[in-house]
Amino acid sequence: FLSGVDAWCKMCSEGGLPSEMQDLELAIHHHQSLYEQVTQAYTEVSQDGKALLDVLQRPLSPGNAESLTATANYSKAVHQVLDVVHEVLHHQRRLESIWQHRKVRLHQRLQLCVFQQDVQQ
């Protein structure tokens, strides 16, 4: 997920807007499929992070002599996993904001094209 963030941001914010209705509809469709791809990647990472945290936070059996040492080591790992999860969440929110801005611009341009076409008729 983290390795794709920069490319996704660039794809969401690159270039001008098409001026033809057909090109705009194609751009809107492409933009929506990009969002679905990002959302799927985010969902997978979130689920994996939650599963990992669940395993790391599960208490060891009390009869285990190494349970205190393992708990201390797992505690550090839990903090590291949480840091990564928070970083992923931050990037997801940033991507969503950039994506939403581009979506609004695409739809506004499409509405403008429809309006211009109506005026010409």
TrEMBL record:
InterPro entries: RhoGEF_Guanine_NuclExch_SF. The keyword Iron does not apply. The gene is LOC115938982. Keywords: Guanine-nucleotide releasing factor. It comes from the Eukaryota. GO terms for cellular component: cytoplasm; extrinsic component of membrane. This is Kalirin-like. Gene3D superfamilies: 1.20.58.60. Transmembrane segments: none annotated. One of its GO terms (molecular function) is guanyl-nucleotide exchange factor activity.
